[in-house]
């Protein structure tokens, strides 16, 4: 995720950028728990309508709020908040553009604390989550600005099988609140808080990408990337080899001279998918009948294992032929995105078995 500085309320050149604003203020009169809940309930309705998400910390008469959303929506909410007479001494701590949200699931997450034993906080009502013991350590790393160790720690937690949603809800968001607490208790300065929150945004983004790759790795799909029998052009087969390898698949390649040779390799290696490629340069119209026979022989040879037969080449890129023309499950229009598409087809195919 990238972070840009500048006014978040002035609009952005690109739709993918959202504004992120953090401010602190002081409550004019101390709100009761029901006051806070009413305030947040109303705010959530409006935030949802305007695509604004964020969190509000209330601690002993002080507010700290982070809001994120499209510049127009953010400007509307911000102009109301600034006019609100329930708080004063409003001070903007950070204002920047980011390419992803930290509080994507929260129209407005509330965390409140008042030093009165009769009052309870929402956080203390909840049983601690299994990831809770990581929170202090990661908060400390965020305050030290150690993004490399935060990333390594989150990656190892993702490798234990926690989903990106678990990590964001039960680790990154609680760490954000812990940073807010540290700042409210004067244990860190505004600058540390700001840097820490930015690091969490980056970490949240990295966790999402890491979880994607990890889930593919864990599934360990396998594919045989083959040229059609006798086809000397192998451009897309070579490009697919890089793509599938990067996506964590087990990849074998074949350049068979006959459909029987390809069938033997499929039978021996037990792949989930096979891709059979005609030339990317020349339209091999006359090779279609033979390709149809090759697809059929491959399917027979793959018997119980082979879930998806994919084909590619100039004929398919230009839609002169389709998967149905040769009895395949999938025809590539282009190389890009093939590993994602075939993973989907394998999952669907297995679900139907
Ligand atoms: C600390 C604090 C945080 C607030 N956060 C939000 C918010 O996130 N979204 C929102 O719509 N209103 C929020 N409000 C309420 C607004 O200030 C305002 O009262 C409400 O949006 C109605 O706005 P209007 O009077 O301009 O219609 C907050 C108020 C306070 C005191």
Automatic annotation (TrEMBL):
Query: Taking every annotated instance into account, which residue ranges of this chain make up the domain B12-binding?
Result: 220-353
Provide the BLUF domain boundaries.
18-109
Q: Which InterPro entries is this protein grouped with?
A: Acylphosphatase-like_dom_sf (IPR036046), BLUF_domain (IPR007024), Cobalamin-bd (IPR006158), Cobalamin-bd_sf (IPR036724)
Top-level division of the source organism's lineage: Bacteria
**What would you give as a GO molecular function for this chain, any one?**
FAD binding
Q: What SUPFAM superfamilies does the entry give?
A: Acylphosphatase/BLUF domain-like (SSF54975), Cobalamin (vitamin B12)-binding domain (SSF52242)
Q: What is this protein called?
A: Putative photosynthesis gene regulator, AppA/PpaA family
